[in-house]
Amino acid sequence: MSAPTYAFKGPSAPPSSFPTASSLRIGIVHARWNTECIAPLVKGAVQAMKKAGVKEENIVVESVPGSWELPAGTQRLITAGQVQASSNVDDLMGATSLLDDGGNADASSQSSSKASRAAFDAVISIGVLIKGSTMHFEYIAQSCCEGLMRVGLDTGTPVILGVLTCLTEEQALQRSGVGEGAGVHNHGEDWGTAAVEMAEKCNRWGKGKVEAGGAKNYA
Amino acid sequence: MSAPTYAFKGPSAPPSSFPTASSLRIGIVHARWNTECIAPLVKGAVQAMKKAGVKEENIVVESVPGSWELPAGTQRLITAGQVQASSNVDDLMGATSLLDDGGNADASSQSSSKASRAAFDAVISIGVLIKGSTMHFEYIAQSCCEGLMRVGLDTGTPVILGVLTCLTEEQALQRSGVGEGAGVHNHGEDWGTAAVEMAEKCNRWGKGKVEAGGAKNYA
Amino acid sequence: MSAPTYAFKGPSAPPSSFPTASSLRIGIVHARWNTECIAPLVKGAVQAMKKAGVKEENIVVESVPGSWELPAGTQRLITAGQVQASSNVDDLMGATSLLDDGGNADASSQSSSKASRAAFDAVISIGVLIKGSTMHFEYIAQSCCEGLMRVGLDTGTPVILGVLTCLTEEQALQRSGVGEGAGVHNHGEDWGTAAVEMAEKCNRWGKGKVEAGGAKNYA
Amino acid sequence: MSAPTYAFKGPSAPPSSFPTASSLRIGIVHARWNTECIAPLVKGAVQAMKKAGVKEENIVVESVPGSWELPAGTQRLITAGQVQASSNVDDLMGATSLLDDGGNADASSQSSSKASRAAFDAVISIGVLIKGSTMHFEYIAQSCCEGLMRVGLDTGTPVILGVLTCLTEEQALQRSGVGEGAGVHNHGEDWGTAAVEMAEKCNRWGKGKVEAGGAKNYA
Amino acid sequence: MSAPTYAFKGPSAPPSSFPTASSLRIGIVHARWNTECIAPLVKGAVQAMKKAGVKEENIVVESVPGSWELPAGTQRLITAGQVQASSNVDDLMGATSLLDDGGNADASSQSSSKASRAAFDAVISIGVLIKGSTMHFEYIAQSCCEGLMRVGLDTGTPVILGVLTCLTEEQALQRSGVGEGAGVHNHGEDWGTAAVEMAEKCNRWGKGKVEAGGAKNYA
Prior knowledge:
The structure is a homopentamer.
Chain A: E1 26-31, H1 35-52, E2 59-64, H2 70-92, E3 122-130, H3 136-155, E4 159-166, H4 169-175, H5 187-206
Parallel strand pairs in A: 1-2, 1-3, 3-4
Helix pairs in contact in A: 1-5, 2-3
Family (chains A, B, C, D, E): Belongs to the DMRL synthase family.
Function (chains A, B, C, D, E): Catalyzes the formation of 6,7-dimethyl-8-ribityllumazine by condensation of 5-amino-6-(D-ribitylamino)uracil with 3,4-dihydroxy-2-butanone 4-phosphate. This is the penultimate step in the biosynthesis of riboflavin.
Keywords (chains A, B, C, D, E): Riboflavin biosynthesis, Transferase
């Protein structure tokens, strides 16, 4: 659409800076089907978050097999962050953490001493579904979206829907920013920015702080 | 339809006045996609609420990236109002509010000393979805509506669905009141009035007060 | 279908009398869109309930703007009845009711001293949706039905679905009993009877009483 | 499909006997629309349960107006059984049962001294929906199925879906076992057997007993 | 799709080993309709889990009549494992287990002294739905998927969707690995591997352990 001009001030532009980004911790859970799209989408999200000021070490990337597993993976990863946050408190109290037992070498946040162990401020759930000959696409897409909405509302942690629901492979590649042309755009970048914005806003709302005076823009 | 005439009195007309409007606090959460429609829709809602008697400073306007984020934004904004309301109580009790720490200059309701800090009486959730070539439209629309219904029923705070689900851009512009013609109508005005009505009725119902004698109109 | 005859007794006919109807309290919440259908539908429901023995003063009629608001209105009206019922108890205990503060002249059940102040035994939710050119119809209908089902199961109060989901205006008028012809039938009458039946049965089930011996009819 | 033969043992056949059937108590809730199908379906379910060993007096048959009311009816009937079960306990403790007040002559399980008053082990919810000219079919079917699934998962009591969702009357009659021909099969018989099987298995699982060694059949 | 090459490291490959598999306990609940597909699908899942290191005696296989019953069966089987796990604790405390009363010879995990009695780490729910002439397929598929998603999120136990939703028998056979050709693949194998992966990851997340440094792969 071509943007009309208004006699009123109208909605504020998207946030151009994220003052608290450097202290945010954000998770990504991605499925692995259609990896040729998943890879650039995850990269787009990571790069957008880093550009917004999120520290690379505070971005956690985990995978699940397919999009059906995204809601459970997102729910459990949010829980993992809460467990870590409460075990941090234990550390401060001098308790010996039982959580170090049986840790996998490649799966411990302790490997980076600078990384945040706070609860996640947002999670991006990334998957790519492409219509096939059965009804699998429809039921997975419906269940996945419904599940992710539930997890976001159950936990109060913003969950960004990073799931492409495409009818063709070409549509999926274009939305992953693969190839050239007017229709090519990496949606992962949008999801990364949305995660940082929602993380900041939900943190602010949680403190009882709301935008004042916004209705004046529509006078 | 042409309205028939009835031998019975029939349903009461929509409320023509809103006695408690000046004390209501109402939130608007809007997505930013298709801003050329969002802007007039938000304006329509704001103007209708002011016309109904809601004070401009008691209308809070916040935005989220897209319609997927509307349910979470609505849920969190309702929580924000409840936190503010309970922190008001703290103030009266002489407690030092911890909520002032780290406040953003542009995001503090303290900037207007007259503005209400009560819990929100209703929230209008505004977004504009237009059918594209993938199935994104269908899954976002479904998830968004389902999530907003859940938030309204979970919280007991009336949530007004201000989401256009259009097949063409022209449909969206017409329903945003942009352009001229018989089909052009700013739906935001309806949402604003609906929010005030539902706020008043839900407040009344919450006090155990119901309309008596209404069945006589159908005798 | 033409009804076949059975060698077994088969299902019992619909109840022909409602022994407890005179003590039931039933709410109607209706939307106001397509009022030319809403009015006769509400009348049909009211008349059917009165014919079944429900007292006119024990039928409460409230309205909300549109069908989206039906689940919240139904939920809140059920709550209103529970508040009234518990405030009755307060009265008996000699407490001064705070609920009388700020009462609206037209919205107080005290205006009829004979009217029940008990919790509602059932609520009928009435709306008329007609397919338009956008997808508004589909998402409102889906959300409304899902929300009303939730409210009924959450509260344990029977909620009758009085929502027409029509593809044409003619279909809506016919099902509202407007006009003449074989296809014309006021569905509101069915909803009224269904509300009384469900109210009685749910009250009975709530006391642990079930029909005994019904399986003998299928021997 | 023609059944292939396997080099492995494969899934066990459906249960051929039901050792605990004589002590089970099972409810049927049926709608009354399209009674010419409902009647044989309920009979099919009753007969199949009796054949499996359920006592006729332990099968409770109740009706609701239409399929919309099935989830609420099923939920409330499950509650009724729990109330009865707990009032039995009261009786053993010598308490005077308040539940006998206002009992209807035709609606008291006391009329059969041999009938179980335990909580229901399963409920079969039976309705017949046939596509009409509006969207009523789709929204009722969707809401009914979703509601019945919720009731089963909320209560832990197995709920069998006995709802036909047909596009023509002929389809409904065939699936009710009415008429002759290859396509004619009374689905009620399947529902009856499924209810007994699920009742036994859920009772067993509730005791922490699971089939051991089943994976050997796939070696 | 042909896999592009990336200038960045990209997502990690699926796990090639499962260090904790030998201590996992995994349930399979399968429907029995279309057994010619169910049998190879269950076998594929069992074989894949054994290949990943799960012990055969720690795989429990149970059946329910049809796909409608899968969510309830999955929920109840998860409960069964929790009951067993807590009764193990009782044993250690010297309590006499009441759970042995009335045990069926073929349905007791005691028959294999080596088998785990821990809570299930994951459950695979397997069914095969094929489109017929009524709308049964659509409503069962929708309810089944929605119910399984709920059970997974309610319990925190990963539930793998092993439900084929096919438009033709040929599609179902191909996805069950029956026959020959490029399109033939036993999806049960994928489900088995997914169950082991999700079991390990959810156990790890539950301990507050997350992958560190994953965002570096997208630099």
